[in-house]
Every structure is written in structure tokens, then in C-alpha cells.
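[User]
Um, C-alpha cells okay?
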Amino acid sequence: MTSARRLGRVALWVLAAIVLAGVIGAVWLHQVMAGDRDRALEAWQNDAIEITDTETGIVMEPASGATSTGLVFVPGAKVDPYAYLYKLSGIVENGTTVVITKPTLNLAFADLRPLDAFTTNAPRIDEWFVGGHSLGGVKSCQYASDTSVAGLVFFGSYCATDLSGTDLPVLSYVAQNDGLSTPQNIEDAAGLLPADTITVELPGANHADFGDYGVQPGDGESTVDDSDVRDAITDEFQAWLDALEP
């Protein structure tokens, strides 16, 4: 076999390996942790809220229509955006519009769209907060530099961007039994956040309790009911908003 033929065969094998890796990667990216249909249905059937599906996100609005505050929520990596409908529905009932983003390739860090790609889904909102679950929360830190952002909310997450020198209001939910974004991980990264960050522990909750998508590998055990987590998220968010009022 000549050298040219050997090189040609090697090149074909390399090309085949690249194509195979691309196919495997594409399949992996499109395999999301699906949401619990029953929990999502509860949100869809909730008369107090209205849900609209758009190309860039899922918009949850109070049925009353009387709202001026909004939250752009970024899902965790490879988690179905619909898995968060139930846990965030209480926030909406209390008057805050929530836009759950649909990240590119189901990964927040692959999404290069600006914040207004999502806020335009609810043009009536005057004040926007950003937040997210797990890696979605880390991504939300990148949106925090947008001048339209009024505050940041972490759901089992932390920041990789130094915001310690800012006066941005921050609310951080920490799940007691979180095996992925552990309470210790979050405490170790606390120095990157403003000193007056409000931290709320959810007793008995684990990482997956911030949504409804089943068991997640590496997570701790949940010992709390879904409705209790929803109520705690709702009550603490509203208390935080109320405290921000001048």
C-alpha cells in the first residue's frame, strides 16, 4: 500500500470518528430530563395563571393581567423547561410574570441570545429579575450586567461572575439535601455575591426539587413534599420582593 493510500485511509477514519462524535453529541444534547406531566398539567389547569408557548420561552402570566414585575428563569442543563411550571406557578399567582427560557441545545451556556430575546415575550413588564436553576443560575449571572435587571434569583445555584462589588439584590434558595449544588458549594461561592444577599434554606429538599423531572444522578434524597417546596419558593420570593419596595 502506498503512502498516499495509507494517508487517505487514515483521513477517512478520522472523518468517520468526527462524524460519529458529532452524532453522539447531538443525540446527547437532545435527551432532556423530561418534566412530570401531571405536575405540568396542574399549572396549565390553574385558573389563576395563563401560559403561552413561544419560540424562545414559556410565558406564565397572572390571569388578572395586572403585573409589572417579571422573572426570566433559565432551566438547568438538559432539563425540560416545562418541568418548572408547577414550582414557579405560585410566584405567578402572586402577580409576577415568569418567562422560562428554551435554551439552545438544552444548555444555558450554548445560548448566546441576549436577555431581550426573552423579555420581549412580555412587553408590558417594567421591572425584570433574572434567575435560574443549577447551571441556568450560573448563566443568569451573565445577564445581571444588563441595566434592565432589578435583581438575581438562584435556585440551587451560584455565580461564577464576581458581583460582590455591586448593590444588585440577590435571593439564593439552597436545598438542604442537594447533592449537586451542595450547600457547601454555594457557601464557598458566596464571596462573589453582594454582602446583603438573602439566603433561604429549603429543609429536606434536593437539587431536583426545584423542578419536577424525577431523580437526577448524584443528587441527595428528598424528604419533602412537592407542594411544600412550591409554597416555600412562592412565599420567600414574595417576601423578598416586598422588602425591596422603597
Summary: The two ends are 81 Å apart (CA to CA). Confidence is low (pLDDT under 50) at residues 7-30.
